[in-house]
Design a protein that fits this description.
This protein is mainly beta. The chain has 3 helices and 10 strands; from the N terminus they run ββββββααββββα. The strands form 2 sheets. Strands 1, 4, 8, 9 and 10 form a 5-stranded mixed beta sheet that branches. The protein has a 5-stranded mixed beta sheet with strand order 3-2-5-6-7. 37% of the residues are buried. Bound molecules: 3,4-dihydroxybenzoic acid. 3,4-dihydroxybenzoic acid (DHB) binds next to loops. The site of 3,4-dihydroxybenzoic acid has 7 residues, from loops.
Length: 237
């Protein structure tokens, strides 16, 4: 049996034109800063699945979104001066053997003309295979969003509605949302190419949860953000 494929949407104008030096899966802390981004802390988890529901390992998941005041990490914005300099704005992660990814970010807020959303790009074998957006289930502005209105299939729509809920046990009002991404059919799809197509230095910098010395901890583990330094791409490399 085939699952309903996650619908694709436009990439939008603000995929970062210059990636931040820190591209890990914790969008709340830049490099070794002790000051987190402003916003509602959200643990964003999910799996990348094949059309038949098999977990896909080594899928390259990128997310990007505007900060708590609607500023994207992009040179084409008109609100860069008010941008939250502590918000990473972009993050990426390679799925594990269960197809799982995780990010720590903020709950998305409206952008002028758009209902709240988080942009996603999923790549395999060095090629983008899905561009989509995750929305906030029940948000009143969803009804007036042109990109959402273009998706006519109710099942497909349900697939991109994130149910942002209080993180159980959190004393500081953190949220959690799960978003499983189902890819459409692709011809001749080996299940693992060892992340081929992702640049070596980038891969080495992709210190995700469970693979490196830091990155967000899993849901339920609160406390101050980790402060130990982690490997980064050295300037000039
Ligand atoms: O079409 C737009 O203006 C627009 C703005 C922001 C977005 O995130 C987006 O996807 C589209």
């Amino acid at each position: 049996d085939m699952l309903t494929a996650t619908p694709k949407t436009t990439e939008g104008p603000f995929y970062p034109d210059k990636l931040p030096l820190d591209t890990d899966n914790d969008l709340l802390i830049l490099n070794n800063s002790i000051t987190p981004a402003v916003g509602e802390i959200t643990y964003l988890t999910g799996r990348v699945l094949s059309p038949s529901g098999e977990p896909l390992r080594n899928a390259f998941v990128e997310i990007w979104q505007c900060d708590h005041q609607g500023a994207y990490l992009h040179s084409g914005t008109d609100n860069d001066s008010s941008r939250d300099k502590n918000f990473q704005g972009y993050g990426r992660f390679l799925t594990d053997s269960k197809g799982q990814y995780c990010f720590r970010t903020i709950k998305p807020v409206p952008y002028p003309g758009r209902t709240p959303h988080i942009h996603f790009g999923v790549s395999r074998h060095g090629q983008r295979v899905l561009t989509t957006q995750l929305f906030v289930k029940g948000h009143p502005q969803n009804e007036r969003d042109g990109i959402l209105k273009a998706i006519r299939d109710q099942k497909a729509l349900d697939n991109i509605m994130g149910d942002f809920q209080p993180l159980p046990g959190s004393r500081i009002g953190e949220l959690a949302v799960n978003f499983d991404i189902v890819l459409g059919m692709t011809p001749n799809d080996p299940d693992d190419d060892g992340a081929k197509g992702i640049g070596k230095s980038e891969r080495e910098s992709g210190m995700g949860m469970g693979r490196g010395p830091r990155g967000p901890r899993g849901p339920g583990e609160n406390g101050p953000p980790p402060s130990s330094p982690r490997p980064e791409i050295p300037p000039g490399n």
